[in-house]
């Protein structure tokens, strides 16, 4: 009896369960059908789901609907985004804008230019006292009938920041070019700065390291690249070889002791063959290294026409030395202001690459000091230790000279630095002069004039100038 009741109860439970499941499935099918009909109706009548407030009394949903309309999903959102972007002024915009302006020989610190159907004002970094001083010198040059150069480019820069303080020059063959940004000038002996840096770090050279050479100082014959010593062999210190710019010494460094790979490595470290992230477009240094040892000698001493630089790049190289081995990026734009007076661009400090060690840079600085005191620039800086301005400075430099392929222009380089004895104020100058038949004012002489003018104004503003004239 008990078993029959249990059996009947179990069958009843199963029957009820099947009926409940059937009703549930039927209700689910009806729900899906009604939902499908509702959605199809919305599509046919073009009703926007966002306009339907299913819960009218729910304030949060109302707020969400309002927020939805404010999102950037339609034409209004695109217009708002375009207006926002229109206010931005990127570095790329600045570079594009400056392509229309040479920014050489500027007579005013601020320049007004048209950009995207509006006028913007560019505030430059130029030191107008120094800029006008150099411009006057160049105006006198243009009046000369004898000794007027074919071309000249002069750059003054603050080495710690890369701030361009002066940029002047001209080219008689191409009046529209910016000679300070052009990079087709042979680097000549300026490249000895890179070779010397490599020798200090890879060969352990010091200022007193003894070196030997045969033949002339400024020639480079294959026979001069052999390590032989006889009664005609001359002995010099490494510092003296740099100051006198002795080609056979640096030729042997390139071909025997450094080699092509090391020369390439240090050239790249100083910025050769790579783009410079500056606001002004200029050509960096260009160098080619082959697998020939004599070519390494030519590169090492700068006795070739394939290693080229611009005055701006020369200023970068010298800045690296005075900046303890860290290379600044040159810039000329302080700020850009739109027609409403709003600043749409401001210069940000850019940290450059470290090219060489701090100790190496200090060694090269001392070698550049020697160039001014007793080396190839000593004539232009004669008497600087007794000068009322220059005597207060630590001055260094490097010269270089090489004719073009046609031998119609002789390029004359000077790149150097001047700084107060405490190192708080400093400047770098790079000058290229393309002399024609008659040699006029040398590049190193312009370097002297720049250092004196700049620090004369600095000392005067700080009441440090003496009454003595120099």
Largest sheet data: 5 strands, antiparallel
What's the total count of β strands?
13
Question: Main sheet: which strands, in order across?
Answer: 4-3-13-12-11
What percent of residues adopt helix (DSSP H or I)? Answer: 40-55%
Mean pLDDT: 85
Sheet/helix structural class: alpha+beta
Q: Tell me, what's the shape?
A: globular
Query: For the terminal residues, how far apart are their CA atoms?
Result: 135 Å
The secondary-structure element order is HHHHEEHEEEHEEHHHEHEEHEEEH
**Which stretches are poorly predicted, pLDDT < 50 over at least 5 residues?**
1-10, 46-86, 466-470
Radius of gyration: 36 Å
SS element count, helices:
12
Question: Hey, roughly how much beta strand do the residues contain?
Answer: 15-25%
Write a compact overview of the structure shown.
The protein is an alpha+beta fold. It has helices spanning 2-45, 59-70, 75-86, 91-98, 128-142, 192-203, 238-243, 247-269, 293-301, 311-322, 358-373, 443-461, and strands at 110-115, 118-124, 151-158, 163-171, 185-186, 210-213, 234-237, 308-309, 333-337, 343-346, 393-403, 410-420, 426-435. The protein contains twelve helices and 13 strands.
């Amino acid at each position: 009896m008990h078993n029959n009741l249990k059996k009947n109860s179990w069958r009843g439970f199963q029957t009820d369960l099947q009926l409940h499941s059937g009703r549930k499935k039927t209700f689910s099918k009806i729900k899906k059908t009604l939902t499908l009909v509702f959605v199809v109706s919305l599509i046919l009548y073009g009703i926007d789901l966002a306009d339907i407030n299913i819960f009218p009394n729910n304030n949060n949903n109302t707020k969400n609907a309002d927020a939805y309309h404010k999102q950037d999903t339609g034409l209004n959102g695109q217009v708002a985004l375009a207006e926002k972007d229109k206010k931005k002024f990127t570095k790329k915009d600045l570079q594009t804008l400056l392509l229309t302006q040479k920014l050489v020989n500027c007579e005013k610190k601020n320049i007004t230019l048209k950009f995207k159907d509006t006028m913007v004002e560019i505030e430059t970094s130029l030191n107008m006292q120094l800029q006008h001083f150099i411009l006057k010198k160049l105006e006198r040059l243009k009046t000369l009938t004898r000794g007027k150069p074919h071309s000249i480019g002069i750059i003054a820069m603050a080495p710690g920041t890369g701030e361009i303080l002066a940029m002047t020059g001209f080219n008689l063959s191409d009046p529209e070019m910016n000679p300070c940004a052009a990079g087709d000038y042979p680097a000549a002996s300026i490249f000895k700065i890179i070779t010397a840096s490599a020798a200090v770090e890879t060969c352990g050279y010091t200022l007193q390291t003894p070196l030997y050479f045969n033949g002339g100082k400024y020639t480079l014959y294959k026979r001069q690249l052999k390590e032989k010593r006889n009664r005609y062999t001359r002995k010099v210190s490494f510092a003296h070889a740099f100051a006198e710019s002795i080609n056979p010494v640096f030729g042997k460094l390139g071909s025997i002791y450094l080699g092509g790979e090391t020369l390439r490595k240090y050239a790249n470290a100083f910025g050769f063959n790579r783009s410079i992230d500056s606001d002004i477009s200029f050509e960096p240094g260009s160098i080619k290294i082959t697998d020939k040892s004599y070519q390494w000698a030519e590169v090492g001493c700068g006795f070739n026409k394939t290693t080229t630089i611009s005055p701006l790049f020369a200023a970068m190289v010298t800045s690296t030395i005075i900046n303890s081995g860290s290379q600044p990026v040159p810039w000329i734009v302080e700020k850009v202001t739109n027609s409403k007076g709003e600043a749409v661009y401001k210069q940000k400090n850019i940290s450059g690459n470290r090219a060489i060690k701090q100790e190496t840079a200090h060694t090269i600085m001392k070698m550049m000091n020697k160039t001014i005191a007793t080396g190839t620039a000593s004539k232009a800086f004669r008497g600087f230790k007794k000068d009322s301005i220059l005597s207060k400075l630590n001055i260094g430099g490097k010269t270089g000279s090489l004719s073009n392929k046609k031998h119609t222009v002789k390029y004359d380089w000077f790149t150097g630095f001047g700084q107060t004895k405490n190192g708080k104020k400093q400047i770098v100058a790079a000058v290229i002069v393309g002399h024609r038949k008659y040699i006029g004012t040398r590049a190193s002489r312009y370097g002297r004039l720049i250092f004196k003018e700049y620090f004369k104004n600095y000392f005067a503003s700080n009441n440090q100038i003496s009454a003595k004239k120099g």
